Amino acid sequence: MTALVLVLGLAVLFQFVLIRIKWNRGDYADVFVDMSMLLVLNAIFSGTILGVLAATAGSTLISLYLLYKPVKLLNEPQFSEASLKQFKEDLAEILK
Fold first, then answer.
1. How open is the CA angle 55-88-64, to the nearest 5 degrees?
2. What are phi and psi of 2, to 5 degrees?
3. Torsion sign (Cα): 20, 95, 87, 89
4. CB atoms near residue 57 (< 10 Å)
5. Helix 28-44 and helix 2-25, axial crossing angle in degrees, nearest 10
6. pLDDT (tens digit, 9 = 90+) per residue, 25-65?
7. How far is CA 54 from CA 31, 72, 80, 92, in A?
8. How far apart are CA 86 and CA 92, in angstroms?
9. Is the pTM of this model over 0.70?
10. Does residue 5 contact residue 49 with C-beta atoms inside 8 Å?
11. What is the distance between the alpha carbons of residues 12 and 55, in angstroms, rounded to a whole number?
12. Helix pair 28-44, 49-68: axis angle to 10 deg
């Protein structure tokens, strides 16, 4: 049981390191998708520790895939550079 908890902790740590890398790169859509997948999969498989471990592993695989194939929400930006910069600053301030 202790080994499973340790593996789960390492998997979650790896997941959040990937999310932090994406945040620093400015891939905010990927961060949103990654966090959503982590929360949804853990909610679905929350009955057992093995279920949570499987959900975290699945979410990590999705995160790795998105690291190389980022989410594209818009083909062309429809926001001005100033409004996008303000949004990023506001979001960074909220997440501090």
1. 30
2. -65, -35
3. negative
4. 16
5. 160
6. 888 888 888 888 888 887 888 778 788 888 888 888 888 88
7. 20, 27, 41, 31
8. 10
9. no
10. yes
11. 10
12. 160
